[in-house]
Write a structure and sequence with these properties.
CATH architecture: 3-Layer(aba) Sandwich
Helix content: 40-55%
Distance between the termini: 25 Å
Oligomer: single chain
CATH class: Alpha Beta
Number of helices: 8
Order of helices and strands: HHEHEHHHHEHEEE
Strand content: 15-25%
Structural class: alpha/beta
Largest sheet: 6 strands, mixed
């Protein structure tokens, strides 16, 4: 093993290094070629979840040390909050029915029918995209002096599978984040230049406008 291979960066490390460089650009965050569309995606293998979290922590610590404020949003928490908001009786009924169905495919379809409206809302209105935009706007309002040094990281997207496609999440966030740079941490596979397969399980989706790192 040579010194160059010993200290070579992984693809995930390369992605975060490139993302950091674009965020701290001397002319302001440059994670997109469009000034008013500050969205980006960092794809990673679902099996690398803990490596991803380590890179997120390093980036966050680095940015905060240089005067940034960083908001981390857990989609898993938002989904669970929405489920809990339905009340204990609703959850018990859903769990009981899912167990009675027995057949895996029928049970999964039943869960999709019950959970998808909670996650998606009505054409993105009232769904977790609204939850994310609310959190981002409130965070930006609390730090008005850090407008060019604010970052929102959206993670734990695997909790949406198979109820919601992340491309829909970003589409519904467009125009609702006060131009705060938003990075989606995407568990899945990159296919070609712009297509992504959510969790490496769904058919590749090329409906993405954001830059994909690295």
């Amino acid at each position: 093993m040579t010194a160059s291979t010993l200290f070579a960066r992984t693809q995930l490390q390369e992605a975060f290094a490139a993302l950091r460089n674009d965020l701290v650009h001397e002319d302001g965050p440059r994670i997109s070629t469009m000034r008013n569309y500050r969205f980006a995606i960092v794809p990673y293998a679902p099996t690398d979840e803990f490596k991803l979290r380590a890179e997120v922590q390093k980036l966050s610590n680095d940015l905060v040390a240089h005067g940034w404020v960083v908001l981390s949003i857990s989609l898993q928490k938002l989904v669970l909050d929405r489920v809990r908001s339905q009340g204990g009786e609703w959850m018990e009924r859903v769990i009981s029915m899912e167990k009675r169905l027995g057949d895996r495919e029928r049970a999964l379809k039943y869960l999709r029918d019950k959970l998808t409206p909670l996650v998606e809302g009505d054409n993105g209105v009232g769904g977790i995209a609204d939850d994310c935009s609310t959190l981002i706007r409130e965070f930006a309002d609390k730090n008005p002096d850090k407008a060019e040094r604010t970052l929102a990281l959206i993670g734990r997207a695997g909790s949406l599978y198979p109820f919601f496609r992340s491309s829909a999440l970003l589409k519904h966030l467009d125009g609702k984040t006060q131009n705060v740079p938003v990075v989606l941490l995407y568990p899945g596979e990159r296919r070609g230049n712009s297509a992504l397969s959510f969790m490496g399980m769904l058919d590749p989706d090329s409906d993405y406008r954001p830059r994909i790192y690295p």
